[in-house]
């Protein structure tokens, strides 16, 4: 048969010895009698292997064509049919459907037209192919095991004969160590088509055994684009693990503390100490407790092809975001059976295909909340090993799994689930011999410690545990009533109270500015195809103190002046600015550090009274945005609701006058002020005589709002956006990020789309001086930020936040525990980058020091 169009063409040069052998075969003269005799022997051999009637006529061959098309003929008979079709034009037309088959048998004729020529040619090709395969795969050949594609710096070949540099295009023999020098990297093409990228100070050797290729990484880091293989495997071996792949992109690092494996694309199998772990895109494994995992993005950031790799990771993140969450649940048959002392309740759906993702979501929420993680781990609540076993046990358990922690207890978590079929305790005992389980009709309770399991099992035996009468139960039941996804509920009133940072400055004040919240309900679910992450901070009774400052959801007219091009926005609705001033003043009055003289000095220096001159003129709503270029002068925009524009403007002028008076006394230049009316709007200017445009402010009043910015042009644009009705609140991108819930308005909203603004700046700064290299990794993260919107709602007895991004733990838990830094860094989009990396946090006041050791190797 002729080769198809898709048949690959091998352009590999033929070894000289093989080429000479083929030339001798071609030039050898053959005796015609020998050819005919050989053909007869072949025919006889084929005929002897064919059962049934011999093929003599065209009708005999045409009778076999249907079987030949269906590939049901034996190899020998199919060979004869193919040979006949090559030589018989009429039968070939019958096979191709251009003429009808013969109705009767025709005169017999032998099918022996030059068959031996084809046999000799086929034999030559077979011999040549096998010789090339043996020569190239087992002997070596001039191309060696790898070819150097590129070298940036110096690449060495290290052998018993010494160390010598390797140049681009050079073929390398097997078993020789290749090593990059400092500030150097290299790209190599392996014989199987795989490419290996070496980082600086990295070394490896390669050897082939049969169809398998093994790369031994002795030091440093590599990124490997493994070619797809039809047979055999590619292995990467370090001092403490082995990685097996068939075709993928992944990174491996080997150092003094251990090895790290990160997967960009495909699937790899990591084996350590006879334990195998399968990694998928975006996942990572480390082989030592002292080696912390890092993001896959950071692990490949040194690559010269990092942009392409990062694009693949971005695609991975998009794919992960498209994973559908389980359907929401509107009731729970487990909740009402819990003990009254339940302090923490987590609920995850028991779906075999989704349990792994639920575990990831649960752990991510703990990872984003340092204080919550401390509270969890301080009680020995390490759920990962148990949940791994639950994935295999899903066929035994019901549709929901509850994880419970009890107040005042020091034992580990307790799991509660309905059972689908018998045999779960026996299964659990085989998987986790130390686990404890207790069965009740249709239910099973299990966990690492017997005391906790016994308490929950005893509650199942009680007709009324008392938990359903608690406020904590009512909060959880409300979550189910609204449709529950993955739940994490904490009764904060059972945790010891801890003071607010800086409270010692306020003395002993009977009126707390920050009342202690009672409940934290975190949830993630999918509503109408949209993933919604939410957290509700609940109080016993109406909100008070700082928690009462945020008003109920209300229309935000300040958003009408912000354009859709804004990249950063914060808007808030407060109940009563005057009441806030009074409350803060009343609280500060109780502080021993503040006296009435202090207030008099503040009023004199500021030039106005905060209560009568400022708060009484405000309406309670304001927004601050970055609505334009960030350089050379940031295009900030402040929009403030005002009920008395004249009083507010008078207060601003008082502040300027007070400052100028002090400036003149100190021999400094005063602030310059100006006023001009254009197109019916009066514009005011406040400018520093020494600090330039960055210290300049323009503002005007319109429709009950003050609009301020660094230039008159920015304010004019805000007025045009309002008049045209094209504000950010009506833009499709902004609306698409709003959470799917029952609220028509917000009490507060934070929005960012800084990636579009920072990306050009990142590209510029990332290549300049000390910012290149390690600093570029953090900058790259800023340039790749995706849009985010966080909405807050003030309700009579709780504050809730929601987002289509996964922000469940960090922000709200930071507020709950008084860790304002953690709250700000989680809610401000680039807060994490400000600190330059993770920091060690002090344990929460309720945390004891008896934490369990971390699980050993191959952490994920």
Task: List its traits.
single chain; 860 residues; alpha+beta; Jelly Rolls; 4 domains; 18-stranded antiparallel beta sheet; 16-stranded mixed beta sheet; 32% helix; disordered N terminus
Short description, anyone?
This protein is of the alpha+beta class and 860 residues long. Helices cover 32% and strands 25% of the residues. The protein has 26 helices and 34 strands.
Question: Radius of gyration from the CA trace?
Answer: 38 Å
Mean pLDDT: 74
The domain count comes to 4
Number of strands: 34
In the predicted model, the low-confidence regions spanning at least 5 consecutive residues are 1-9, 48-52, 103-144, 500-511, 764-783, 807-860
N-to-C span: 52 Å
Query: β content, as a range?
Result: 15-25%
Range of helix content: 25-40%
General form: extended
Structural class: alpha+beta
Number of H/I helices: 26
- Could you give a short account of the major beta sheet? 18 strands, antiparallel
Task: Give a description of the structure.
The two termini are 52 Å apart. Helices cover 32% and strands 25% of the residues. Residues 1-9, 48-52, 103-144, 500-511, 764-783 and 807-860 have low confidence and may be disordered. It is of the alpha+beta class and 860 residues long. The protein has an 18-stranded antiparallel sheet, with helices on both faces. It has a 16-stranded mixed sheet that branches. Helix 24 runs antiparallel to helix 25 (820-827). The protein is built from 26 helices and 34 strands. It folds into 4 domains: 16-137, no CATH class; 143-321, Jelly Rolls (Sandwich); 325-541 and 799-831, no CATH class; 544-795, no CATH class.
């Amino acid at each position: 048969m002729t080769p198809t169009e898709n048949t690959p063409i091998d352009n590999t040069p033929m070894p000289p010895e093989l080429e000479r052998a083929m030339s001798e075969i071609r030039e050898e003269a053959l005796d015609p009698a020998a050819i005919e005799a050989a053909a007869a022997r072949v025919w006889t051999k084929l005929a002897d292997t064919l059962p049934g009637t011999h093929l003599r006529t065209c009708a005999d061959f045409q009778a076999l064509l249907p079987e030949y098309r269906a590939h049901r003929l034996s190899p020998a008979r199919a060979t004869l049919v193919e040979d006949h079709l090559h030589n018989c034009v009429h039968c070939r037309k019958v096979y191709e459907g251009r003429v009808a088959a013969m109705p009767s048998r025709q005169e017999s004729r032998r099918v022996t037209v030059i068959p031996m020529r084809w046999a000799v040619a086929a034999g030559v090709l077979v011999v040549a192919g096998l010789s090339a395969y043996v020569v190239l795969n087992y002997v070596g050949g001039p191309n060696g095991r790898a070819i150097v594609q590129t070298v940036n710096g110096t690449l060495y070949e290290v052998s018993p004969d010494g160390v010598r540099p390797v140049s681009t295009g050079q073929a390398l023999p097997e078993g020789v160590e290749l090593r990059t020098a400092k500030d150097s990297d290299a790209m190599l093409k392996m014989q199987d088509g795989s490419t290996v990228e070496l980082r600086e100070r990295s070394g490896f050797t390669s050897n082939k055994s049969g169809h398998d290729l093994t790369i031994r990484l002795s030091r440093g880091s590599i990124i490997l684009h493994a070619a797809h293989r039809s047979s055999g495997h590619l292995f990467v071996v370090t001092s403490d693990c082995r990685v097996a792949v068939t075709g993928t992109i992944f990174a491996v690092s080997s150092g003094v503390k251990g090895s790290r494996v990160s997967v960009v694309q495909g699937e790899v199998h990591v084996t350590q100490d006879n334990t195998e772990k399968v990694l998928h895109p975006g996942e990572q494994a480390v082989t030592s407790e002292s080696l912390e995992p890092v993001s896959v993005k950071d692990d490949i950031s040194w690559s010269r092809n990092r942009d392409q790799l990062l694009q693949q990771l971005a695609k991975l993140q998009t794919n992960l975001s498209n994973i559908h969450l389980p359907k929401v649940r509107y009731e729970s048959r487990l909740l009402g059976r819990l003990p009254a002392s339940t302090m923490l309740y987590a609920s995850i759906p028991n779906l075999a295909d989704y349990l792994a993702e639920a575990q990831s979501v649960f752990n991510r929420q703990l990872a984003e909340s340092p204080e919550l993680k401390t509270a969890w781990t301080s009680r020995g609540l390490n759920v990962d090993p148990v949940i791994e076993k639950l994935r295999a046990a899903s066929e035994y358990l019901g549709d929901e799994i509850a994880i419970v922690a009890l107040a005042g207890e020091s034992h580990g978590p307790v799991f509660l689930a309905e059972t689908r079929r018998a045999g779960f305790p026996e299964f659990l005992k085989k998987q986790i011999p130390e686990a404890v389980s207790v069965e009740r009709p249709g239910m099973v309770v299990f966990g690492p410690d017997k005391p906790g399991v016994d308490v929950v099992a005893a509650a199942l035996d009680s007709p009324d545990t008392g938990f359903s009468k608690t406020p904590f139960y009512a909060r959880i039941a409300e979550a189910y009533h609204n449709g529950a996804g993955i739940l994490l509920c904490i009764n904060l009133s059972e945790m010891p109270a801890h003071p607010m940072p800086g409270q010692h400055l306020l003395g002993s004040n009977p009126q707390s500015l920050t009342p202690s919240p009672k409940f934290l309900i975190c949830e993630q679910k999918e509503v109408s195809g949209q993933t919604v992450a939410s957290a509700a901070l609940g109080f016993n009774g109406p909100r008070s103190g700082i928690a009462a400052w945020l008003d109920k959801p209300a229309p935000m007219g300040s958003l009408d002046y912000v354009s859709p091009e804004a990249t950063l926005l914060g808007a808030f609705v407060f109940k009563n600015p005057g009441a806030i001033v009074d409350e803060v003043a009343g609280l500060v009055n109780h502080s021993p550090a503040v006296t009435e003289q202090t207030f008099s000095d503040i009023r004199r220096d500021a030039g106005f009274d905060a209560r009568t001159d400022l708060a009484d003129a405000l309406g309670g709503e304001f927004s601050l945005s970055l609505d334009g270029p960030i350089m050379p002068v940031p295009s900030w925009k402040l929009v403030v609701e005002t009920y008395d524009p004249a009083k507010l403007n008078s207060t601003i002028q008082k502040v300027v006058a007070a400052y100028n008076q002090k400036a003149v006394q100190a021999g400094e230049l005063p602030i310059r002020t100006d006023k001009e009316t254009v197109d019916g709007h009066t514009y005011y200017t406040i400018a520093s005589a020494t600090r330039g445009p960055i210290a300049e402010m323009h503002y005007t009043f319109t429709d009950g709002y003050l609009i301020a910015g660094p230039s008159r042009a920015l304010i004019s644009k805000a007025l045009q956006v309002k008049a045209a009705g094209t504000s950010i609140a009506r833009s499709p991108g902004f609306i698409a990020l709003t959470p799917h819930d029952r609220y028509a308005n917000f009490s507060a909203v934070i929005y960012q789309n800084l990636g579009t603004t920072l990306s050009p700046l990142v590209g510029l700064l990332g290549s300049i001086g000390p910012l290149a290299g390690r600093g570029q990794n953090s900058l790259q993260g800023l340039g790749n930020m995706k849009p985010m919107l966080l909405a807050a709602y003030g309700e009579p007895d709780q504050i809730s936040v929601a987002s289509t991004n996964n922000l469940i733990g960090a922000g709200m838990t930071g507020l709950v525990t008084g860790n304002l830094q953690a709250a700000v860094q989680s809610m401000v989009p680039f807060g994490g980058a400000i600190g330059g990396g993770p920091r060690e946090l002090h344990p929460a006041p309720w945390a004891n020091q008896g934490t369990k050791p971390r699980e050993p190797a191959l952490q994920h």
